[in-house]
Amino acid sequence: MIKVGIIGSTGYAGAELVRLLTNHKDAEIVWYGSRSYIEKPYAEVYGNMFKLVDAKCMDDNMDELAEQADVIFTATPQGLCASLVNDEILSKVKIVDLSADFRLKDVSVYEKWYGIEHKSPQYLDEAVYGLCELYRDEIKGARLIANPGCYTTCSILTAYPLVKEGLIDPQTLIVDAKSGTSGAGRGAKVNNLYCEVNENIKAYGVATHRHTPEIEDQLGKACGKDIVISFTPHLVPMNRGILATEYASLVPHADGSLPTKEELAAAYEKYYKNEKFIRLLPYATPTETKWVEGSNYVDISFKIDERTKRVVMMGAIDNLVKGAAGQAVQNMNLIFGLPEDEGLDLVPSFP
Amino acid sequence: MIKVGIIGSTGYAGAELVRLLTNHKDAEIVWYGSRSYIEKPYAEVYGNMFKLVDAKCMDDNMDELAEQADVIFTATPQGLCASLVNDEILSKVKIVDLSADFRLKDVSVYEKWYGIEHKSPQYLDEAVYGLCELYRDEIKGARLIANPGCYTTCSILTAYPLVKEGLIDPQTLIVDAKSGTSGAGRGAKVNNLYCEVNENIKAYGVATHRHTPEIEDQLGKACGKDIVISFTPHLVPMNRGILATEYASLVPHADGSLPTKEELAAAYEKYYKNEKFIRLLPYATPTETKWVEGSNYVDISFKIDERTKRVVMMGAIDNLVKGAAGQAVQNMNLIFGLPEDEGLDLVPSFP
Amino acid sequence: MIKVGIIGSTGYAGAELVRLLTNHKDAEIVWYGSRSYIEKPYAEVYGNMFKLVDAKCMDDNMDELAEQADVIFTATPQGLCASLVNDEILSKVKIVDLSADFRLKDVSVYEKWYGIEHKSPQYLDEAVYGLCELYRDEIKGARLIANPGCYTTCSILTAYPLVKEGLIDPQTLIVDAKSGTSGAGRGAKVNNLYCEVNENIKAYGVATHRHTPEIEDQLGKACGKDIVISFTPHLVPMNRGILATEYASLVPHADGSLPTKEELAAAYEKYYKNEKFIRLLPYATPTETKWVEGSNYVDISFKIDERTKRVVMMGAIDNLVKGAAGQAVQNMNLIFGLPEDEGLDLVPSFP
Amino acid sequence: MIKVGIIGSTGYAGAELVRLLTNHKDAEIVWYGSRSYIEKPYAEVYGNMFKLVDAKCMDDNMDELAEQADVIFTATPQGLCASLVNDEILSKVKIVDLSADFRLKDVSVYEKWYGIEHKSPQYLDEAVYGLCELYRDEIKGARLIANPGCYTTCSILTAYPLVKEGLIDPQTLIVDAKSGTSGAGRGAKVNNLYCEVNENIKAYGVATHRHTPEIEDQLGKACGKDIVISFTPHLVPMNRGILATEYASLVPHADGSLPTKEELAAAYEKYYKNEKFIRLLPYATPTETKWVEGSNYVDISFKIDERTKRVVMMGAIDNLVKGAAGQAVQNMNLIFGLPEDEGLDLVPSFP
Predict the structure, then answer these.
(1) Which of the other chains make 3 or more beta carbon contacts under 8 angstroms with chain B?
(2) pTM for this one?
(3) In terms of CATH, what superfamily is A151-318?
(4) From the candidates B132, B150, B154, B223, which is the catalytic residue?
(5) Using CB atoms, which residue from D12, D19, D50 is nearest to C291?
(6) D221 φ, ψ to 5°?
(7) Does domain A2-126 have CATH number 3.40.50.720?
């Protein structure tokens, strides 16, 4: 039985980890970390866990945690994990960091976009980017996983095969993403009040959102060059879900003809055919966030627009599952040699 | 492996049965009945089931179904099950009827409230009211289960111990219930359009809702006399959940003193202490539908109002789970001698 | 042109005052008070007012305000208005207090339910309860108006004629009320975050909500005796609206017969026939909050339940209009001798 | 007093016309056309209009209407207006057509995108495209107005000055639009049920939506050449509002430098400085649909992305007001020589 410690267990991503691990056969939570609710019964913070979790919230003591746990999930704001991790801790325990601290290999890019100093850049090389479908083998032997961002997971997986196969021009890529409000976290802010979010939609972080370099980094690796993309997140009045609508120009063949839908479909099949958590919808079927709610699925679809010579790619995930806790559990399963889908047989809930 | 047929598998309750049974270890669905979508792949009707269900929808042929299945769930409007069931079918297959056809023992009450003729009143005596916490033993040997209504499940369980123990006067009982919109079904009606329901709340069926006699019937049995109650359902802009707020006058002791909260709590404990799916919240903690979403739990709480000498009881369920499909599976488990919670270890999802 | 000062103009009720007064022919706002946003342009706090309001937010200086304004609206938490008002101020300016400070004539009741000391009980006698339909004449000459609470406005008006005419037994009155989330204010609290409120319904303040004594006070006056009632508010996932579902036993005639629907309708007509802002719906038509959204209307309906000998009364208002700012403007109109509906010809918005 | 007839008064756009005209000083509705509800009191179809509208719904008789009305609004599906209009009618009455019938000058484009035959192409030349800010002078003398689509109004106005001034390359234009559900109409369809739309977001009509050629037509005129653009609408779980997020490459100056934000701002000022209904937000401020709800405003903003050399333009409208009924009234005001904003002094409602 894998012993799990969670730092930040009372945020929405942390709470989703608790939900998923409660039904995981080979893992048990031994530490419900929450600096805001120390000593408070966890089920008083999250009433849904009444009778399911008896434990109280504990402080974020990573040294102590390293003694008691086999794996630590840090579901905390950027900066915290990097400030706590050290050689001794890494020698004792695996870390799956749900924050951004180890996602970008270039420390200067991190410091520019996040505006804070990186406290342990020495681990950037070692850290493995935990997008399981792309880095499965590296994850298996890793001690430190950088769990990808929610927007990035959806944005990257939706475009990856077409970028990798050179079917689209990555410099033309525009990602227009829409997220449910749980992505904004559980902090008590006026902007996230019910009456401010409900019956409203808006963009935010236009041309400055921190998930941008993460997408550029990974898709740049896929095509072997530095790229810049447009990424615009939007806040949608719903609890969960990310929808990415992605636009890119198709790269014509030598004879000037455009790639066909069969060619594009083949590219998706090539990379995702055997991926349990990726569902390739029939051609041109719009993805819907509701179809993946509560599950670890990524739904992907695309449509060619002959008129503009672009392809519109569509991806949908549950931001708290595949975009955070589900992927973290998937990483844990890989690290410990468990079946990759253990605890993740989650059937999407409708309605 | 229990072979399951579902008649009405594309309504919301039917779809929830599919969701729950997909993860049930000892059952498999062999028949996805849906008169509206015959021959259409089920996953085209419910995109959440893409890659999870390969089957096509089939017609509602109960004779054929009785050959192929061990149990049939009828998630259909009232009247259908009663019109189809007969001795031969009941000799071959168990039936869990999610409609109202066999819930009321008195056929005249059924015909008055539902306004239709009952087509097989000869089975009313045999049918067992499938409120598992109250009729567990009878369910175990039954061939025909009348799965309770969603409002009734919540309303009855919330008040039952206090009625049964004579702590409240059942004639003063007022049930003010609030339901998410999935309770209204998937029929294409203007009243259920997004823009009509959203940002709105209203009562409906005031003093005439068909779940009224079902509540009166069961709580009347509990106190051993005929009772009439006030029951008012409301439509709430949310997908799932029923909240019942119930008011009743406390019955004073012989010395004129009111029952204490400890006495009331003891009554609840007496009946529900060992019930896995009933969670008795700490005194006066309001129940919230969100805390039970997606699960088979019934959350119950109460508060004494010394000023009015009334008790306010509060109950919450997910109308599609404990109020329909979850309870139906719980009934199936009891009928077939499986662990009662098989396939029902559903952790409520938040947010 | 009446000069208006608003203390608390950046709360939801204050913002609604701004919306309504912007289109009021005979009033202009000269002071946008907001302690939290001093010096910030009002339109940066409320983007909807961009190009409509040029002013900046100002501190809450009631002495200064009394010099500049003809009327002050205090849309602030309880305690503030009572702590600021004095003879000099009242000699210069009219005050419409949207808080609870002057609603209850009995200072001990106020202090018990609100848990704070009343700082100027000497004005309780003078203050007029600003429920315009009941206190129109007193309001006309008043300097200090206690604008009623949102729940109370709806709850009282819905039951008043039947209580006044002795058609129902007020001691049996149960008010089950449901409110949109703007009633919870704009404070940054976890409980009011989008993800906590959305897809959820719950009761709160059970048997302890502060609007209870206000309802009891007014309906007690109507029937000429002290009464206690049950009042339970609920939080509904919508921005605006209050729905009150009220239950009471009908008082039989001397011959034992129950009052008829015609008799009840006549009582409503007697008091409300000429009231512009009260709409008596056809018999038994459920009121819907959406039908009054954005307007100053109170929609009222009722249905007799012969079985239980009770009547179910239903009322609906927009909590920010008739439940707060609209009624405050109606009070201002009465005080200054303007047409009562000036600035209040608001057509409900649907959808 | 202008006499108004509405064909299709019980759809959402028609109902919004009724809401707006109820408070219009110089217009009165003489004909509430609704084929679905003939003889039914209008206030029974839309309870918000109780006590405000006494009339009954009438059949769609355009000949009769032409006798009684000064202007007819056709808020009906495409094809109807074109099939009814003729010389005699146009000689008697003005027509503001809210459908698509007269928006596209090229009948073959209409027939290709809408898939129906155009029944009166002879009026295409005469019809004026009723985007008031661009065609004000032509509208003033017109008999037949093609009221623009909701998506198009928002999409065109948001990009128009930058296209017109040659600051962006229109062939790179990508419009990612998001709409509230009232845009889908009041038809009873499963897809528009509350439970299908709520907690969900999806694209639809990808690369095929009928508003595409309308945007291309108008922006093509602005830049003097034929253009093709990408346009993707999305369905958002809210009642009202359209948000358009638009991407385009900036056209560098001769020296290779990019246009500055001041240059872009100047372009917007040039065309919209004196437009009452267009609000140019401070640089880079995201537009929010909630800030325009219930009003005739178009909020516009933009942000330059130096990295990608693109500009992100953002526009927001209320789809039922500026996107339909409000613009129709604005057109009526222009036709009849009234102040353009008569009846349109609508303050956005928040929350």
Answers:
(1) A, C, D
(2) 0.98
(3) Dihydrodipicolinate Reductase; domain 2 (3.30.360.10)
(4) B150
(5) D50
(6) -60, -40
(7) yes
